[in-house]
Amino acid sequence: MNCIIIDDELTARMILKQVFEQVKELNLVGEFSNAIEAIKFLNTTTVDAIFLDIHMPDFSGFDLIQTLKKPPKIVLTTSDRNFAVEAFEYDFVVDYIVKPIELSRFKKSVEKIIAAKAKENNIKTVTHNPTADTDTLYVNIDRRLVKIDIPSIYVVEAKGDYIKVKTEEKNYIVHSPLKKIEEKLPTVSFLKVHRSYIININKIIDIEDNSVLIKQDIVPVSRSNRNELKRRLNLL
Amino acid sequence: MEQPNLSYINELSSGDEQFRDQIIRVLKEELFLDVESYYKHIQNEDLKKTKEVVHRIKHKMSILGLEKSYKITNDFENNLANSSIKDKIYFENILPVMLDFVKNL
Questions:
Q1: Residues 61..120 of A with a Cβ closer than 8 Å to B: which?
Q2: Residue A222 is part of a domain; what is its CATH number?
Q3: Which pTM does this prediction carry?
Q4: Domain B17-103 in this protein, CATH class
Q5: What pLDDT shows up at residue B11?
């Protein structure tokens, strides 16, 4: 896996490089003493993971995270325990290591990156299923296969063993878990914003902190999905 | 007063003398610069910059096994964020101990 280190302290970067050398899965492709230089590099190079210091003068690790359009997996390295909660609000932050970094603890972070990458690849495999790329979806209702135009779907809501598929034209109650339809919908337009809701982000009217207005429906957005939703929007 | 040690660096080096020498040299250089910056910023009452450099020194305390000092410095850092200089005296007393230790390495 190609990785980079971002830390303003040379001592910290040297320690990380030393532990890097003892983990064969990692290939260090760059080290940066500030976030700006790292962003320039990331604009032209794709990496699998970043080992990122939170505390850096002028432009913190969190500032950097918010500028990344397609963030790789991130392991935060810090001398503070206080930021753990904030750190895990980002889906792509897979671990949080408190300095000084020890090899055994570092290896656990690498295992977490590998597991997160494997999970991501599985999801990609499912979403690249050619049937998921079409504009239509057939659902089984009362022993009939009913055709639904995917772009017309604006919300899918889980209701026990059933899902309610809401479209511009009408609503459908289908016997299916939410996860199954999630796998069939194109990820470019659809996003799971809550454990019971998938929305079509093209149909959003407005967004408040904890909810989105989509057509006439107010859909809750869970805390863990809020950042991913923001990331997917064309924010000014 | 708590005394620094090289347990962490020795364990990290695991017999790699070249790395051990390099990390000690860099730690020494950065610590001297950090301490100099600290006195400059605290004298100018720039608590934001002081906090930044205290954070860097705190990391070096953890490398040098100064566990108690690390905790007090963590409090000092939080106090600086709230515009207080409580724990400054302890922090300034541990600095020469660190400098003396690395000077003799």
A1: 79-80, 99-100, 102-103
A2: 2.40.50.1020
A3: 0.66
A4: mainly alpha
A5: 94
Tell me the pLDDT band of A226, cut-offs 50, 70 and 90.
Answer: confident
Residue A22 and residue A121 share a domain: yes
Closest by Cβ to A15, choosing from B12, B55, B56: B12
How close A13 gets to chain B, by Cα (Å)?
Answer: 10
pLDDT bin (cut points 50, 70, 90) of residue A124 is low
User: What CATH code is carried by the domain that includes residue A119?
Assistant: 3.40.50.2300
Higher pLDDT, A119 or A150: A150
CB spacing of B23 vs A14 below 8 angstroms? yes
Number of domains in chain A: 2
- Regarding whether A117 and A144 lie in a shared domain, the answer is no
| Residue count of chain A | 236
Mark A29-60 as b/e (b = at least 16 C-beta within 10 Å): ebbbbebeebbebbeeeebbbbbbbbbbeebb
Residue range A52-81: mean pLDDT, rounded: 88
Radius of gyration, CA atoms only, chain A:
21
Same domain, A18 and A117: yes
Which range marks the domain in which residue A59 is found?
A: 2-127
A131 pLDDT band, cuts 50/70/90, is very low
B92 Cβ under 8 Å from any chain A Cβ:
no
- Answer whether B72 touches A (CB < 8 Å): no
3-state helix, strand, coil in chain A (%, to 5): 35, 35, 30
Q: What DSSP character marks residue B56? A: H
Helix axes B17-43, A10-20, angle to 10 degrees: 150
